[in-house]
Amino acid sequence: MHSNLFFIVGVGRSGTTLIRLMLNSHPDVAIPYETHFITNYIREMDKYGPLSVSANLDRLIADLLKEDLLSKWDKVPTAQEVKQKLGSNPTLSDVIDAIYTCYAQAHGKKFWGDKSDYLDRMHDINSLFPNTKFIHIIRDGRDVAQSVLKMEWGPGDIIEAAEWWRDHVRLGRCMGKMLPPDRYMEIRYEDLVLDTENNLRRICDFLGLPYAVEMLNYYKNSESLIPAERSSQHYNADAPPMASRTYAWKTSMDKSAVAVFDKYAKTQLQAFGYEANTVQIPKWKLRLATLKVLLKRMF
Known about the structure:
The protein has 299 residues and is an alpha/beta fold. It is built from twelve helices and five strands. It has a single domain (6-28, 110-296), classed as Rossmann fold. The termini are far apart.
């Protein structure tokens, strides 16, 4: 039960959509648009009561299918289609599995995966699906910061971005170390972009799937997989990965911002194989740059 499932996790703007689109292009794999809400239901199950009672099950399925992000999927199953895949005494994980299985089968696929921001809730996902696998994609935090600070959501300044990246990637690795090695893998965004085929082969080996060359052409069908109202957040999805998207911070990021980021995230940068302290500025300039960020929060 619930076999061949996997979850793509990572800090926002780290390449989770890229890897989702690549794997979704595999002939056997379907990954719908992100959900984010699955783990919320773990703490809300008491209000539904036993799912062996048809009315309780109907209410849970209806609530799940009404979730805003799920409604943005390119193919949304009906409640009846979901119920047809359930036994007489289903659990929350059975219901979620049924929804995703309906999605996969609607695309002619055997297996499903999920791409959502569950780095801080991997333990909850693991409690729902004890055999699931996690792919943790990691990107140089300075490129993440440059990207996320342009978004309407997320960190508001370079210090917050450094702490956000640092704490989440560290948490993901800590959670991963609690799992058997065959259920957790890390992949760097830069490696995936610069050596795409070999790293996709690594991922397929991890998932127990044959390599499929179709994954290299993911961008040709990306438009239908991203809701129109979210396309501005995924503006590179319709083109193949470009080397220029790796380590862009080296030429486009203000030196003071680089130094401040390194100050707050140096240990994690180095832990994941990224160079740190590449920008040398006087200590007084670093203190001043830090102070400016902190003062701006007050006004």
